[in-house]
């Protein structure tokens, strides 16, 4: 990729800082999606390591393109403890870099040696991209809107997060030349895992340790985001739900004590417990979706990692 | 595509208005790129009409995705005489719709019956997309910058416009199962034609009839855009160039009389004549790039249409 896009891409991926000096540790993402491609391929055995690595790179590029655009749309100034690309170089550069990473993801897949796998992988990844767009659009529409139900929220999370994680697991199986039934089973596993991942992310967004997450504490509440613990709390019909709804309906900026109060109300209304239960259920469903033949230790370990993040 | 993205996509493409009522005539684009795919395929003969139509649809979607994002980046409020998507629905929706159309373009190509053509077409279209991103990034960086040379400008125009038009002609030949040399020749034809197209667009941006172009008169000058006539004028070393440079360096909003004066200065400094000459040369080069066997009447007619737009 040509400059200045290459510098911005490496910055976003945590390889270096804005001036191309060495980035501090922890600036790179977890690469969970790439890891899932490898783990799914390994679980199916018979995989070609070369193809798997290309597919893992492609899903990471696709994911990072959506992060670049999401940060612009959501106005998020920091990610992983560093300023986002748009807040360093401006929104135009962040949009165009995202577009270029989207193209690069597809180029990598088109370059796979097996054309039949290439076409299937591209089909699945781009269908997933359309779902991500619909999910992100829905997520934006939730902001500041009351009356979002738990079902609305789960449908949005399926589009915004779970479909890509399902895609990663399915593509890992595809790269291992697994049969269609196994590819579909790994897709379902990833989809359930992805829902759990989003629900845990929502818990972290309220009760996470900023030192670990790189996000300011309570930032989701301060922005009145309709995350799962909040949606579950608002739909609980409790006294705390009424007070929380009033806090969310108020147009004024939240103070730190408002944020603390909101977190306490979500917990009082049972939102924290409900979100944790939903996450646990999705992990169980994920494990149940896996045929015994592909129930590998790596996939189990990654599933548990998703649920045990610091929060 | 799901709602609300489908309504926005159809609005952008000129199929209907924002409330899905019938759009006025002239709201749809020229579909020049799609037409070039068909003309190139027909010139090579032996083409499969089904595949050609899919490829034409894909390049139009790719082009329209970049227009949606360009309008956000450039802050353009109108296109083809109607409010742009971002100015109706907001920038987030316009970004996400562009991303979804990008994905849809690739999905259509991945769905081609001949997988070898599918992979080649995807490779070429996505390599083109990266070029478009680099070109758009360069174009943004030109805004408000003095010292842009004619060579800088032509390189940017090659990335921003010519590479996609070259891609359309090459993909048309590919869909007709033409040999590699013919595909490459049509790619070169389209590239030269695309440069001419951009240069004529720049002339229209200053001297075009707003009733025909749908753009406010002199809008490129009012925004101090470094288009080819302006860049050629600024590099002419004439008295008019000095006065024009002063107008461009001034931070104040241009009045209509400033815009009129700028247009007169560009013409005085020879910028209008130079841009017209560059366009004519590129058209000649385009025609020269075509092997006699594929020098079809349609391709000649489209070439002349490009140069004879109202300005």
Automatic annotation (TrEMBL), chains A, B:
Query: Care to name a GO molecular-function term for this sequence?
Result: metal ion binding
Q: Spell out the CDD domains in the cross-references.
A: Trans_IPPS_HT
Residues that span the membrane, as ranges: none
Q: Which GO terms describe its biological process?
A: isoprenoid biosynthetic process
- Keywords assigned by UniProt, alphabetized: Magnesium, Metal-binding, Transferase
NCBIfam families named in the record:
GGPPsyn_IdsB
Q: Which family does it belong to?
A: Belongs to the FPP/GGPP synthase family.
**Known PANTHER family for this protein?**
GERANYLGERANYL DIPHOSPHATE SYNTHASE, GERANYLGERANYL PYROPHOSPHATE SYNTHASE
What is the name listed in the Swiss-Prot or TrEMBL entry for this protein?
Polyprenyl synthetase family protein
- In its UniProt entry, the species of origin is given as Mycobacterium spongiae
């Amino acid at each position: 990729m040509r400059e200045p896009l290459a510098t911005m891409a490496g910055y976003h991926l945590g390889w270096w800082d804005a001036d191309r000096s060495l980035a501090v540790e922890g600036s790179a993402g977890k690469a969970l999606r790439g890891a899932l491609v490898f783990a799914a391929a390994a679980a199916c055995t018979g995989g070609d390591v070369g193809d798997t690595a290309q597919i893992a790179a492609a899903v990471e590029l696709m994911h990072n393109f959506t992060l670049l655009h999401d940060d612009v749309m959501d106005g998020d100034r920091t990610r992983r403890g560093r300023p986002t690309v748009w807040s360093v170089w401006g929104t135009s550069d962040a949009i165009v870099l995202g577009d270029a990473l989207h193209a690069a993801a597809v180029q990598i897949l088109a370059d796979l040696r097996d054309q039949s796998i290439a076409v299937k992988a591209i089909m699945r990844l781009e269908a997933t991209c359309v779902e991500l767009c619909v999910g992100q659009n829905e997520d934006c529409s939730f902001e500041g809107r009351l009356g979002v139900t738990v079902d609305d929220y789960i449908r949005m999370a399926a589009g915004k997060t779970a479909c890509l994680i399902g895609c990663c697991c399915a593509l890992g199986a595809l790269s291992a030349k697994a049969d269609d039934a196994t590819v579909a089973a790994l897709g379902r596993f990833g989809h359930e895992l992805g829902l759990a991942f989003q629900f845990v992310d929502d818990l972290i967004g309220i009760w996470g340790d900023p030192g670990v997450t790189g996000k300011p504490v309570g930032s989701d509440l301060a922005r009145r985001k309709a995350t799962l613990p909040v949606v579950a709390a608002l739909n609980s019909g409790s006294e705390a739900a009424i007070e929380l709804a009033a806090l969310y309906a108020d147009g004024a900026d939240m103070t730190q004590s408002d944020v603390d109060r909101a977190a306490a109300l979500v917990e009082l209304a049972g939102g924290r417990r409900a979100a944790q239960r939903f996450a646990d259920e999705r992990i169980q469903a994920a494990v149940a979706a896996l045929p015994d033949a592909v129930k590998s230790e790596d996939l189990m370990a990654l599933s548990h990692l998703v649920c045990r993040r610091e929060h």
